[in-house]
Amino acid sequence: MTERETLKKWLDESSNIVFFGGAGVSTESHIPDFRSTDGLYNQQYDYPPETILSHSFYMRKPEEFYRFYRNKMLFPNAEPNRAHKALAKLEKMGKLKAVVTQNIDGLHQKAGSREVLELHGSVLRNYCTRCGKFYGLDAILNSTGVPKCTCGGTIKPDVVLYEEGLDQETIEKSVKYIANADVLIIGGTSLTVYPAAGLIDYYRGHKLVLINKSVTPMDNRADLVISGPIGEVLGDAVGV
To answer: In terms of residue numbers, what domain contains 204?
Structure first.
């Protein structure tokens, strides 16, 4: 039995699947990832992207932050790919219990997934740091410079910047789903960003699936490793 046939068998047999994904899930929707050779971190700016996307830089140089953010982090026309659609279908079938994602693009929800735990927040949610009023993506897209609330406060994206902590409730829910999963599928992530990558330590089962184009530090711990585009692998396994 090939790796892909094994994956299909496990998906067919299970009703407690959890998916944990990173930037590679969205690259097939033409959203660049951070760490590949043509990713964000290999492009030239006055400051490295890690610096621009940090809390201290946001506080110190908000105009520069927003120029980069609008230019490189927002993809309002992106559409879900086969990976997003496959996961939404598995959830609809009652097989997939949750998607735990490092992505901030909202494409899982756009594809129809309901239980999506966004470890790093979402570009679709923005809030005033003074009065707490919430804004959608348009508030950022249709403004220039530093976006302002009607109260005069600054509108900040509800995304986790470097130097900021992850939301505790989201982490606890993610841990619970992963710990209780029968099948855990990890895809499109280099598994090098902590604390997110550490979540898979909570998995106790024997069907750990890794789908990635490149080798990860966790390959030797997986029960099944499939090298290939995640949209194709999941799309073929689920039939979307």
So the answer is: 1-31+79-120+165-240
